[in-house]
Amino acid sequence: MNTANETLNIASFAPTPRTLMGPGPSDVHPRVLGALARPTIGHLDPDFIGLMDDIKALLQYAFQTENSVTFPISAPGSAGMEACFANLVEPGDKVVVCQNGVFGGRMKENVLRCGGVPVMVEDDWGRAVDPEKVEAALGANPDAGILAFVHAETSTGAASDARVLAELARKHHCLTIVDTVTSLGGMPVKVDEWGIDAVYSGSQKCLSCAPGLSPVSFGERALKKVRNRRARVQSWFLDLNLILGYWGEGAKRAYHHTAPVNPLYGLHEALLMLREEGLENAWARHRTNHLALRAGLEALGLRFLVPEQQRLPQLNTVTIPEGVDDAAVRSRLLKEYNLELGAGLGAWAGRVWRIGLMGHSSRAENILLCVGALEALLGSMGAPVTPGALTKVQQTLENPIDVSA
Ligand SMILES: *Cc1c(COP(=O)(O)O)cnc(C)c1O
Question: Which of 21, 67, 168, 198 is most exposed, with the fewest beta carbons within 10 Å of its own?
């Protein structure tokens, strides 16, 4: 074993800056990086308490909710997911889970680990959750108490109609657990208007922040269920009753765990930027930039996987042309352009690229870089490429006509 420093020979880590256009993390805004580097203070410091209150208010804005229990879990999006299920699902509880990609499968796994009984509603990968199937499942399982679904399936690029699904849940007296990890900040998420009961997100997708935090929000009906549980929440760390001693309204901010102080500075700055831009403007930016990227990709002959009306603006999945080596293209993009695109998952590994335009990554210069790089690489690999894709991008940026709206 090496114990002497000189034999370890390790230097400070200095990553090459990349342009992140995959399924997350996305580019972190320099203002957020600056905030992360500020001096660490104590997590019970009176100044820090003020920051926590700001974050809660800014998250209420982002989620469009007045829920007082709205705060970030000190861990990535998966922990937000787990917090929702661990608190709301008790042994024996029946949960209708929609699956149209990777993340619905994780929801099922969470239900099982909480001792619940998942009732699966399955749709093809690359398609939205079908409300008719959901309605049928809710009708056939009147003893189900929760409907869980993913708003924006990052594994495929498909958007589901959260408003309609939440309405169905209400009609059938079910609570909703909704994954908005990839939708929050990039497309409308209206927790109160849509009647969503429990929702979680992530810091590193459309919020332009570093990974590691998971904003959540719980409405009154969900909290009632948590308070009336028969069994204790199995996870000590994620037990809302305990966390709220630190994050709760009027709480004396008792120590629960050491809050991730600097990451919370980053989230605060990112949410502040979203507030400055305005939610509607952020949604419109994601929409316009999606149209510009689409114009460029289609000019290159690339085809979208998801039907037009169900596409996420922030995650664009296109099929890889015949004869083009997926891994070779992505590794050259990284080496020669410092550009990261996302690979396909599951049955689509090697067959699609997932191109993210999330948060600070959703910018004209990124689209031009991506389309220009793909044009050059595909051409050099013998794929038939008609020139002019960048012109299409420019034209769409100047005059974004939303043909699908
Ligand atoms: C990224 C993602 C998650 C998981 O978030 P992590 O921060 O990676 O734990 C969950 N759901 C969806 C839809 C995601 O895109």
Answer: 168
